[in-house]
Amino acid sequence: MDETQLIKEAKSGDVDAFNSLVLAYQVRVYNLAYRILSDEDSAEDTTQTVFLTAYQKLSGFRGGSFLAWILRITTNQCYDRLRYAKRHPTASLEPLNDDDESMESPAWMKDSSSGPEVLLDQAELERAIQQCINALPADYRMVAVLVDVQGMDYQSVAEIIKTPMGTVKSRLARARLKLRDCLSGIRELMPSSIRLNMEGNK
Amino acid sequence: MTTRCSKKDRLLLSRYLAGALSSRQKTALEPRLASEKALVEELNQLKQTRNILASLPTRPVPHNFTIKAGELPRKQSVRLFPVFRMATTICGLLFVILLGITTFTTHITSPQMAAMSEPVESEEYATDENQLMGAAPKAAQPLDTPQASSSAIMEATSLPSGAGVLTAPLPELNQGEAEDVEKVVIRGVDSIKRSSIWVTIAWVFGIISVLSTVAMFYFYYRERV
To answer: Which of A10, A70, B85, B180 has the fewest other C-beta atoms within 10 Å?
Structure first.
């Protein structure tokens, strides 16, 4: 059954039709929430809230891209959580710089006793990249995750975060610059697959 | 030529990669990319950054987020209590204000009308009513006689002869006085007409306010549950 038909049936109260949409988009929603919030439990709660909110507000969906609509709800929920977290700070075990932000340098990852021969496995690398994403301001983080991690085009991102496309591009440029600085320290530790990919782009 | 990449250039390159440069900026940058190795290197590093982010694995969901009909929260209906509370307040205020203004303006104009309705007792001005009415056909003519002017006033006010405010035979007036009287009467009648419209509007607001109050209490108890 196509998406339009599923949405139509879900609007008329068919929970099964709505659940088909949930199954189709839950990975995108969960991953976006996880990359922005950087916490599995928060991402899980947010994803559940997103789908409940979507079901309640489905009558307000006026057509267009359902994915963009559901990701807009996700980014709004993430903003709410980030604001809440800012108002109710918790102690972090990760090192902070002088501005009380997570350290951009991934030096904390390196084990000085092991030397340069230490291999980082995929999980550690992911953690390092995620740490760099976390160091970005929320607005930049949203754009970087949506464009570079989720692979969405500028037009869709502008629609999702309700921001002009020029602002999206500008935020992306600044976000990449910050990420580039942050990631420069671990570049040589990248797995060969990524490094080969990088070489290919030169 | 190899030079250090400035902060401004780095931002320029990042904006270039993001497609955020204007065509003029792009035209200026591209020849530099052909000649400045530092810029090319910086651009490649930005591309690498993009690739690193794209390489992040997709995480599996911990469980399905499907919803069950029994678990669904009750659909939140539009709360009408605040709407009716606002309507009650606004309509109540408008009712009071309009009625107050209308009453106030009526009190201002009524002494003039009262002055006009006072019977004239002086014999000097006493005229036979029949004589006055007899002058009516001449009303179409210019106001050259006191009788004609009196009758014109009666027509101008659209009141039946001998009824309403002009209960007494009008005195014989010269032309200037008759015109003054005519103006006052017309003004008075217009004022009454105007005020009656505003009184009606005020009462409409009053009725809406009462109905809105009833609805407000209804929704207050309904939405509280």
So the answer is: B180
